[in-house]
Design goal:
Largest sheet: 7 strands, mixed
Strand content: 15-25%
Number of strands: 19
Distance between the termini: 36 Å
Radius of gyration: 30 Å
């Protein structure tokens, strides 16, 4: 359609007109100024979004103005050609530039502007297998990782507006400076999609908070590792699992977001098992431990609300937790009975005679939540009842009581002790709608002011495709 327009402008502007053609320069063979831009370099550098785009430059070759698509009156005013496109339609919106074809922006960035990527490039030998190369260089958690090619890293970086060279902090235990780019590299290796990346960033920032005590968590011989819990619209937008098998395998977002955090601690911070990671047994959650909360019951407050956020906020919370302990109760139909059943199980967190040292998360399944709901109990009532039920005379849990050497110090024998600190028991909801099986995630025995506390952060950016 523009062929006659170009011919008219060529006559009027002569050498003052340059034409860059993304498709086929032969379209404008009559115009000596037609330049083949099929490699899209000029279009990329000029940030062309719509074809056609008409750009006006000053005498010093700085851009003064640009217009998009075809609008007859606009083009005439812009060029000063009063009769331009006389036989053409008054308006056509134009087409999207090829520079914005799916995946093309990252490819063009790699081709024409590598400045966004600062990480050292690793060249593999011709016969090296890229998966095996990642194992051999020590970047893996024991499972295969996705090779972090520059193109894949750029695509994940596209999930955030934060600069690639921004340093978000120092990752323990080596306290190595960590950039957004390094986070993206490990997110790629974990298998994350670009839209997961803002959540990964927020999770890492939470892990770096002093209250979480990531360095101590790495060094302990105890079982614990970071547990990632997600609330709000971001969990639904990313398709995170809060239902059937929420704490198990099968969901990409759950699996890869949690894994990315673990890989960052390993690959950037140097937290390698057998090195600074001295866990006696560890737990399978050290691969990944990430899930969303079931927020379907609006009468049941969410963890985010308990932590001071609104129900609409997208929030990530980190907890230093162990493996999963079942709470099986298929018989209780009253809130009182079910509460007592849960309290009996909670006594065994860390040890039945250890009180006030380890925090815990009680994960209430939907069927158990329904029992409390039908009996008119709120989450707060459940929490208060559990604290009361767990109060225990010190004499029964001091060292040596019941012929068990483990226990609380002897000077507490005359006191009444609570199992958890005032804010040490967190109650959330998750799981499938069938099955009266709740669970406990016990905490590190260095919980509270002297060790690790749950930390929560509002996710700093909604994924760009939401």
């Amino acid at each position: 359609m523009l062929t006659p327009v170009i011919a008219e402008l060529t006559q009027q502007l002569g050498d003052g007109l340059q034409i860059y053609v993304q498709d086929d320069a032969e379209f404008f063979s009559a115009a000596a100024q037609a330049i083949d831009d099929s490699n899209l370099e000029y279009s990329y550098r000029a940030s062309i979004e719509i074809v056609p785009t008409l750009i006006k430059f000053g005498a010093d070759q700085t851009e003064q103005d640009r217009i998009y698509g075809w609008d007859k009156d606009q083009w005439r005013k812009f060029t000063g050609a009063d009769k331009l496109g006389e036989k053409l339609a008054d308006f056509r919106p134009g087409c999207g530039s090829k520079t914005f074809d799916p995946g093309m922006q990252e490819k063009l960035t790699l081709k024409f502007d590598r400045s966004k990527l600062k990480a050292r490039a690793i060249e593999l030998a011709e016969q090296e297998d890229d998966i095996e190369a990642c194992f051999e260089r020590g970047w893996s958690d024991g499972l295969p990782v996705v090779p972090p090619t520059p193109l894949r890293v750029l695509r994940v970086l596209g999930g955030t507006q934060r600069p690639a060279d921004e340093v978000i902090g120092k990752i323990p235990p080596d306290y190595a400076p960590c950039t957004i780019e390094k986070l993206a590299i490990n997110a790629v290796m974990a298998g994350c999609k670009p839209e997961y990346f803002p959540l990964v960033i927020s999770a890492v920032e939470a892990a770096l908070e002093d209250d979480f005590c990531m360095h101590g968590l790495l060094c302990t011989t105890y079982f614990s590792s970071p547990v990632v819990i997600v609330n709000g619209a971001v969990a639904r937008a990313l398709g995170m699992n809060s239902g059937v098998n929420a704490l198990g395998q099968g969901n990409r977002a759950n699996a890869t977001i949690g894994r990315a955090l673990q890989l960052i601690i390993r690959n950037v911070g140097g937290g390698i098992p057998g090195g600074i990671d001295r866990a006696t047994l560890g737990n399978p959650g050290k691969y990944t431990y990430c899930f969303a909360e079931d927020e379907s019951d609006e009468q049941w407050t969410t963890l985010a609300q308990d932590r001071g956020f609104t129900r609409n906020d997208s929030v990530v919370s980190l907890f230093a937790g162990d493996g999963l302990q079942p709470v099986m109760d298929q018989q209780s139909r009253t809130a009182e009975s079910l509460m007592r059943s849960m309290a009996a199980s909670l006594r065994s967190v860390a040890h039945t005679k250890i009180f006030g040292l380890a925090d815990a998360i009680l994960v209430v399944c939907p069927e158990h939540r329904r029992v409390f709901h039908d009996c008119g109990w709120s989450k707060q009532q459940l929490r208060e009842a559990l604290y009361d039920q767990l109060k225990t005379p010190g004499s029964s849990i001091v060292r040596g009581a019941d012929d068990i050497s483990e226990g609380m110090p002897q000077h507490l024998a005359e006191k009444t002790l609570g199992k958890f600190r005032a804010d040490g028991l967190h109650i959330i909801s998750a799981g499938g709608k069938a099955g009266m099986f709740s669970a406990i995630i016990g905490g590190w025995v260095a919980s509270g002011e002297r060790g690790s506390q749950m930390v929560s952060r509002k996710i700093d950016q909604t994924p760009q495709n939401i």
